[in-house]
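On clarity, I found the account of how folds are encoded harder to follow than it need be. Since the whole study asks how a given chain folds, the encoding of that fold should be made plain. For illustration, here is how one protein appears when written out as sequence plus structure tokens:
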Amino acid sequence: MTAALSYCGGLTTPRFAATFSSSALMADGREADARLNWEAYVQREVSAARLAHQAVPATALLGNPDAIHRIGRELGLSDEQTDQFIPGIVLTLATGYPYRTAHQRHLSLTDILAQITAEDLAELLRHTALSAAGLTDDAAAILQRIQRAAR
């Protein structure tokens, strides 16, 4: 498997490696090992995202629960709903972290999380709330807007 990973060159992100390992285990008939391998990867990603979020300074938006709740309330969300959505948003941002733009390559995940603006967070919360409500077309439209703005 190591030779195959090195052959793939740029496809050596932790997610790719975990996907590749799990797929290889599945192909070998080791479904339980594949599932455990994938779950271990997900737990590492969740832990890394949680630690990076905890390290965001209180002066940054994602480090300020009052500011986060204020944005959530402006969108019609309760503080509890906002609190439920934030870890998923942070994990989503962390998942995209390896693919950051060239001018952000020197930044840590904590630095990137600290740069989230109120407008960005509002869009992410809006998208998450629509997805949670099952309004997939509306959520997809917001996601497309977010992706266009990121380019």
User: Anything to note?
Assistant: The radius of gyration is 18 Å. Residues 1-9 have pLDDT under 50 and may be disordered. DSSP finds eight helices and no strands in the chain. Residues 5 and 17 are 7 Å apart (CA to CA).
